[in-house]
Design a protein that fits this description.
By secondary structure, this protein is of the alpha/beta class. The chain folds into two domains: 10-79 and 106-178 and 290-368, FAD/NAD(P)-binding domain; 180-288, D-Amino Acid Oxidase, Chain A, domain 2 (2-Layer Sandwich). Helices cover 34% and strands 22% of the residues. The protein contains 13 helices and 17 strands. The chain has helices at 17-28, 58-64, 68-74, 112-121, 194-197, 199-205, 241-244, 252-262, 268-275, 306-309, 318-333, 339-368, 373-383, and strands at residues 10-13, 34-36, 50-52, 82-85, 91-95, 109-111, 128-129, 134-139, 145-149, 154-157, 159-162, 180-191, 209-214, 217-223, 229-236, 282-288, 301-303. The protein has a seven-stranded mixed β-sheet, sandwiched between helices. A five-stranded parallel β-sheet has the order 7-2-1-11-17, covered by helices on one side. A three-stranded antiparallel β-sheet has the order 8-9-10, with no helix packed on it. A hairpin with a 4-residue loop joins strand 9 and strand 10. The protein is globular. The chain starts with 9 loop residues before the first strand and ends with a helix.
């Protein structure tokens, strides 16, 4: 193993899967990094839905982090089930996880919160500095940068890794690109104790993911741990659809009625995902960076995860790539004499890989919300080996 000499001060901005994976792999190879996170604590906010981790990306990153076996013990293999339902409620396609012992492409599901807990628990104490919301990054002498946080504190680093998501504060120092609206908005809702409180909807969802997409709109329901079903009501629409309608997003009844109006004619069972909510409604417009998103080298800075390649969730690659990014960057830093050599080697792999995935994600969301999306998705699913 080769490491930079002297040991660099490494700052990772953001305690998501990619940033935490990077910190963990660095620590396993004798380098330290400090992770700065704006959240006040690990429990400050909901971490989102479930993830399927792929063997050659997310699982590979966990293998390098020494956490693969722990992940497999926490994950839900049954969560790989995939269902397609028509707008009339008929089951069109149902694929369960492999049951023949073939594990070459097994993609177990895990809730984002559990994955974050696994990664946090693997780090040395005080690796993550909670309540450090980054305001700006100030270039200093050479490749160094000074980080300015909302609480008035500062920190200096020889390498700043922007793992801070869609609206990264690090990205503007490398790239002028900003995320653009994809044309699709999700309204998130959810069902608690679904098997007992909402048995018909739980049965329709199955053990994994259920999709009912047709004519530029539809439903995605995902089974989470603890009997929770997370639901995304999707629609191709203007980003300000609610303002154009004079809709107050805080008015639960008004949002429900507006969604029911948009989905008039759909199966009563599917409409139950709107009417039977236990969590209310959260508006989530989907954004993506331009494809390809590239930048020229700036000493002392780099990006990973959504900060580098924000894409639609219809690739299934976002968190997987972020974790592989983190593991690859850590491996580069422990395999080169200088930080700049390491970052250059990392970006040489990162940029073409993320461009390919982002192209696939753009095609995925376009197909999922096309006028004939139901036929497209069914053809794709039945063609898969």
């Amino acid at each position: 193993m080769t490491t930079p000499d002297p040991a660099p001060r490494i700052a990772i901005i953001g305690a998501g899967p990619g940033g935490l994976t990077c910190a963990r792999v660095l620590q396993r190879h004798g380098l330290t990094a400090t992770v700065y996170e704006g959240d006040a604590s690990p429990a400050a906010r909901d971490q989102g839905g479930t993830l399927d981790l792929h063997p050659r990306s997310g699982q590979e990153a966990l293998r390098r982090a020494g956490l693969l076996e722990e992940f497999l013990a926490l994950s839900r293999p049954e969560g790989q089930q995939m269902r397609l339902v028509g707008r009339d409620g008929r089951l069109l396609f149902d694929a369960s996880p492999p049951g023949d012992g073939d594990t070459a492409d097994v993609r177990p599901e895990i809730d984002r919160g559990r994955l974050r807990g696994l990664l946090l628990g693997s780090l040395a104490p005080a690796t993550v500095r909670w309540g450090h919301r980054l305001l700006r990054v100030e270039p200093r002498d050479g490749a160094a940068h000074r980080l300015h946080f909302a609480d008035g504190t500062t920190a200096d680093a020889d390498l700043v890794i922007g793992a801070d998501g869609a609206w990264s504060k690090v990205r503007p120092l490398l790239s002028g690109a900003v995320p653009g609206y994809t044309g699709v908005t999700f309204v998130e809702t959810g069902l608690d104790a679904a098997d007992t409180r909402h048995p018909r909807l739980a049965e329709l969802t199955g053990n994994g993911t259920m999709m009912a997409l047709d004519g530029g709109q539809g439903f995605v329901a995902q089974r989470n741990a603890g009997g929770h079903v997370r639901v995304y009501v999707g629609m191709r629409t203007d980003e300000d659809w609610h303002r154009r309608s004079g809709l107050d997003l805080a008015d639960t009844t008004a949002v429900r009625d507006a969604l029911l109006d948009r989905f008039a004619g759909w199966s009563p069972d599917l409409l139950g995902f709107i009417t039977d909510t236990d969590t209310g409604y959260t508006n989530r417009p989907l954004h993506a960076l331009p494809v390809p998103h590239t930048w020229s080298r700036v000493p002392g800075l780099t990006l990973l995860g959504d900060a580098a390649h924000l894409m639609s969730p219809f690739s299934g690659m976002g968190a997987n790539l972020a974790m592989l990014d983190g593991a690859d960057l850590a491996r580069a830093l422990t395999g080169h004499r200088t930080v700049e050599e390491a970052v250059a080697a990392y970006e040489e792999v990162l940029l073409p890989r993320s461009a390919e995935a982002a192209e696939g994600a753009a095609e995925g969301i376009a197909g999922a919300f096309a006028p004939d999306s139901a036929a497209q998705i069914l053809a794709h699913m039945t063609a898969r080996p």
